[in-house]
Amino acid sequence: MNERIKIVIRGAVQGVGFRPFVYRLASELGIKGWIINSSQGVFIEAEAEGCTLDMFISRLQSDRPKNSFIQSFEHSVLDYFGYENFEIRESTESGVKTALVLPDVSTCSDCLEEVFDPSNRRYLYPFTNCTNCGPRFSIIQRLPYDRNNTTMGEFEMCPECKAEYKDPSNRRFHAEPTACPVCGPQLTLLDSTGKPISEKHSALMEAVRQIKNGKTIALKGIGGFQLLCDARSSDAVKLLRSRKRRSEKPFALMFPNMDDIKIECEVSAAEERLLTSVESPIVLLRRKKGVTSGISSETAKGNPYYGIMLPYSPLRHILMKELGFPIIATSGNISEEPICIDEFEALEKLRGIADFYLVHNRKIQRHVDDSIARIAEGREMLIRRARGYAPLPVSIKGLDSSFLAFGPHLKNTIAVNKGNNVFISQHIGDLENIESINAFKRVACDLQNFYAITPEKAICDLHPEYISTKFAKELNTELDQVQHHYAHVLSCMAENEIEGDVLGVSWDGTGYGSDGTIWGGEFIIPQGRDFERAAYLKPFRLPGGEQAIREVWRIGFALLYDVFGAEVFRLTNIEFIHRIRQVLYIKQMLDKNINSPVTSSMGRLFDGVSAILGIRSTASFEAQAAMELEFAAAEVNTNDYFKYNIELLPEGTYVVDWHVTLKELVKELNGDVHSDILSAKFHNTLSEVITDVAKRCGLEKVVLTGGCFQNKYLLERSIRRLREEKFKVYWHQRVPTNDGGISLGQIKYSSF
Ligand code: ZN
Ligand code: ZN
Ligand code: FE
Q: Distance, CA 462 to ligand 2 centroid (Å)?
């Protein structure tokens, strides 16, 4: 099938023969489209068969001209346009040019060679970088990007570094963070009380020894602290879990090299490219079956995926080479607070968690977490957009003034725009504690200062109690409030560059609805500043509100009670029904309607069904029950699906009624059908619901958005079913489908 991809490359790709190179490559592969070179980067649109485009993408990187380098390479799939040839277009830049702040770039191969060359003066120097690589966003204090405007400003260059910095023929010509062992930052190892015990390379070697001993090291990295320990040692991982009070949520891993990853996981060509990209995110990889894993089972219990990254800074390269085995590399924070960025904060917050602190004297200006990505339906899909990506812009057409969008409550990001460039902040997190709220305020100032923007309008969520809403309301500026699920739809439309009539399927855990109830299973047809709620999931209740999100069996009970009434107690195959005292208590809550908010949330339906199937009755982290339901479905292959009802309300809105679905599910559960099969059938039912509603609405374009579409099984199945019925399907690629994408949708809203 012919596809169109859009590629944005940033770095020194100007004036090095890049355009002719791209032209020749496109001609050789028979690709149609165009290339433009501008101050904002190189923009390419290419059309061909999918596999030809894959080759184009990989050869753009591997065969590029010698003197070119790439600091960011983003691509996404767009609707086929039908170009007739490939041309070099002239850049038509007008108006104000925005200086871009580049993200932190993973170590380039030249620097890596130097670091491991005993005859080089930067041998084993962990802060080696050059014009092509190294820290950027995490060290910039203000623009323009000069050394004195970064946290490297306080390091005086030695004569040798200065000579390189001033030599136009040198790779370090104007490499602002350049450094060497003589003049640059150095490592120190602190004990758990903060007392320095070792310096420089021996600090690193001592840290290596301690990790081998099963100790936990807090490492001051690029964008903040990380906690490291031996991933092979169940004792070490268990200890870290108990200290961090993180019982089950999977830990990310860092592997020394690709070969070792391939022993543990299935790695496709697209996944390998992502792992070794300049952005170097954590990639979710499927664990190999039937392999005795070298990784402790404590790392990602009940999860068929590992989140894995490769070393991306010289410090990590040296560390991993010395260790030679995979380590846990998880964020250095307490529960959901932002990651620590300085030693004092780390010593206080990580007390009792870290045994040692491997720190250095280069200041981190702002927190930047590791990004997380996965491949779904053959395309990259960012789940968390931070290191390597933030704060590069996403462009939207038709923005004539500047806006500031405050994002949602969970997985918060903020966005501002200057003309068509929308700058989405790094991942901030859940605004549930004072540290996250402070980070939120800092980032809001940060973004405006960077781009010298005085927004004409602020945009926030509709929820009156969100911190982000309250904060936006306190500003003395015009304010738009955008319904959460509509913002999801607009976000997905914006990044796929589509306009006009679409059906938005906006499914997630929680969002404040226009009617004041909690929404989350929404079918939305955009109408400019307004939208039509074309369909929604039949609402149910959450006994205990927030508590039901953890104790998901409460949702399971509420669903069954809705369907079966008092007969629910006759159901024998439901595990939680036997906890009779607890269940009766919940029944009372529902009967008397005490603290049982109504919701149409699809995420919560997943939670409830997970409990009903006996897969998970209590969740220790957000979406755990729903995720395990997905993993169960992925174990089997069935094309069957349950029935469901769709009823049409007088106002022309469809209600998706899951009562039949649950009745059949419970019947099969009593007939001892395996929960994996039931889970698959439940997922398939939902893909059918989407297809069915899409047919009734009769719009050609269908947009899949919201946190539920992080579910690979649901996403891929829905795409396939919709395509079979000749719909055009769109989902997220560069911007998270979860609430991390809301701020982009809010900005898009203001263009109306
Ligand atoms: Zn380099
Ligand atoms: Zn130097
Ligand atoms: Fe959401």
A: 53
Distance 109 CA to ligand 1 centre (A): 7
Mean pLDDT in the chain? 94
**Which ligand ends up closest to the CA of 518?**
3
pTM of the entire predicted model: 0.96
Q: Which ligand is nearest to the CA of 408?
A: 3
**Tens digits of per-residue pLDDT, 473-525?**
998 899 999 999 999 999 999 999 999 999 999 999 999 999 999 999 999 99
| Alpha carbons within 13 A on the beta-carbon side of 401 | 10
Measured in Å, residue 131 CA sits from the centre of ligand 2 at: 15
Q: Say which CATH number the domain at 302 has.
A: 3.90.870.40
Rounded distance from Cα 129 to ligand 1 centre (Å): 5
Ligand nearest to the CA of 463: 3
Ligand nearest to the CA of 185: 2
Q: How high is the pLDDT of residue 97?
A: 62
Confidence check: pLDDT of 95 > 60:
no
Has residue 677 been placed in a domain?
Answer: yes
Q: Residue 706 Cα, ligand 3 centroid: separation in angstroms?
A: 5
Ranges of beta strands (E only) in 222-355 are: 225-230, 252-254, 282-286, 305-309, 327-331
Residue-level pLDDT at 41: 86
Average pLDDT for residues 674-691, to the nearest whole number?
Answer: 96
3-class secondary structure for 530-572?
EEEEEEEECCEECCCCHHHHHCCHHHHHHHHHHHHHHHHHHCC
For residue 57, tell me if it sits in a domain.
yes
User: What is the CATH number for 669?
Assistant: 1.10.357.160
Residues 196 and 337 in one domain: yes
315-364 pLDDT tens trace: 999 999 999 999 999 999 887 789 999 999 999 999 999 999 999 999 99
Ligand nearest to the CA of 739: 3
Residue 733 lies inside a defined structural domain of this protein: no
For residue 105, the 8-state DSSP code is B
Of 408, 452, 433, the residue nearest 737 (C-alpha): 408
716, 376 contact by CB (below 8 A)? yes
Question: Do residues 192 and 77 share a domain?
Answer: no
My answer on whether 204 and 352 are in the same domain is yes
Boundary (domain end) residue, out of 25, 60, 88: 88
Distance CA 200, CA 215 (A): 20
Q: What average pLDDT score do residues 688-716 get? A: 97
Tell me the average pLDDT across 285-311: 94
Q: Which residue range(s) make up the domain with 292?
A: 187-372
Tell me the CATH number at 30: 3.30.70.100
Do 58 and 193 have their domain in common? no
Judged by DSSP in three states, 420 sits in coil
Please indicate, yes or no, whether residues 216 and 71 belong to a single structural domain of this protein. Answer: no
Q: What is the mean pLDDT of residues 649-656?
A: 93
Q: pLDDT at residue 434 above 90? A: yes
In 3D space, the residue among 436, 476, 437 whose CA is nearest the CA of residue 456 turns out to be: 476
Taking the centre of ligand 3 as the mean of its atom positions, its distance from the CA of residue 622, in whole angstroms, is 13
Burial-class residue 526 by CB neighbours within 10 Å (0-12, 13-18, 19+): buried
Q: Is the pLDDT of residue 307 over 90?
A: yes
Total of domains in the chain: 3
pLDDT in tens, 117-158: 999 999 999 999 999 999 999 999 988 889 999 999 999 999
User: Which ligand ends up closest to the CA of 483?
Assistant: 3
Residue with tokens 């100032």: 445
Give 171 Cα–ligand 1 centroid separation in angstroms: 8
Does residue 166 lie within any of the structural domains?
A: no
pLDDT of residue 93: 63
Q: How far is the CA of 132 from the centre of ligand 2 (A)?
A: 17
Question: Comparing C-alpha atoms, which of 165, 163, 187 is closest to residue 176?
Answer: 165
Whether 54 has a pLDDT exceeding 80, the answer reads: yes
The Cα–Cα gap between 449 and 90 comes to 31
Q: Tell me, in angstroms, the distance from the centre of ligand 1 to residue 11's CA.
A: 12
- Tell me the CA–centroid distance for residue 339 and ligand 3, in Å: 23
What is the mean pLDDT of the segment spanning 16-24? 89
Q: Note whether 76 and 215 are same-domain residues.
A: no
Ligand number nearest to the C-alpha of 506: 3
Q: How far is the CA of 168 from the centre of ligand 1 (A)?
A: 16
- Residue after which a domain boundary falls, among 88, 119, 142: 88
Same domain, residue pair 194 and 80: no
Residues with CB in 5 Å of ion ligand 2: 158, 161, 180, 182-183
Ligand 1 center–CA 334 separation, angstroms: 33
